[in-house]
Amino acid sequence: METPVHTPNDTTTPAITRVVVMGVSGSGKSTIGALVADAMDIPFLDGDSLHPMANISKMAAGTPLNDEDRWPWLEIVGNELANTTAAGIVIACSALKRKYRDAIRSKAPDTIFLHLDGSLEVLSSRLEGRSGHFMPPALLASQLAALEPLGGDERAVIIDISAGINDLLAEAVAGIRRVSGQ
Ligand SMILES: Nc1ncnc2c1ncn2[C@@H]1O[C@H](COP(=O)(O)OP(=O)(O)OP(=O)(O)O)[C@@H](O)[C@H]1O
Ligand SMILES: O=C(O)[C@H](O)[C@@H](O)[C@H](O)[C@H](O)CO
């Protein structure tokens, strides 16, 4: 006879690890997010691929998004987090303002926000060194102006992006495991 996976007394369900890698343009969300997901063996979704086409065109033309542009996108991000059927999911999404993170949490309350935090100097040099991306480096100032730091009451990990990729990856995974209690 096969051993049942759940016995009648086993009321625990495995926790799902939901992570949003947040931060301004050029902070490394796509790079670190994909590596974190790989290391934790869960899927990765780049929030850039969830934007309505009009948002991509607007940014590419050098105009920052406003709240109205971002709401439909944040709803998609929240739904992807809430509806995952995997053991977890990592989504790269700038989530710059507190109200954006609240909107995401309204769909997926247990989301952990991993903020890739960096100075203007480091961010500028990363953006200047990047090629083939729709986001113009000139939009960095508007991204930093919109950024609202994580509050002490938010489920979060903050890391300084000045380190190398391997160190950031290790720090990020350890932080997520600590916060999620896994
Ligand atoms: N720790 C790091 N050390 C050196 N280079 C890095 C590091 N993290 C990311 N990069 C590089 O910095 C650039 C920006 O990274 P990435 O595209 O992942 O940022 P992003 O936050 O996803 O940006 P955007 O929001 O504009 O899509 C890329 O060229 C990437 O290879
Ligand atoms: O909220 C925003 O202004 C946007 O999401 C941006 O952050 C871009 O998506 C990203 O930085 C470019 O890849």
TrEMBL record:
Which UniProt keywords are listed? ATP-binding, Gluconate utilization, Kinase, Nucleotide-binding, Transferase
Please list the reactions this protein catalyses.
Answer: D-gluconate + ATP = 6-phospho-D-gluconate + ADP + H(+)
An example GO BP is: D-gluconate metabolic process
Q: Name one Pfam family in it.
A: SKI
For this protein, what is the EC number?
2.7.1.12
Under which main EC class is this enzyme filed?
transferase
Instruction: Name the source's superkingdom.
Output: Bacteria
Per UniProt, what is one GO molecular function of this protein? gluconokinase activity
Q: Part of which pathway?
A: Carbohydrate acid metabolism
One GO cellular component term, please give it: cytoplasm
Q: Which family does it belong to?
A: Belongs to the gluconokinase GntK/GntV family.
Record's protein name: Gluconokinase
Origin organism is Arthrobacter livingstonensis
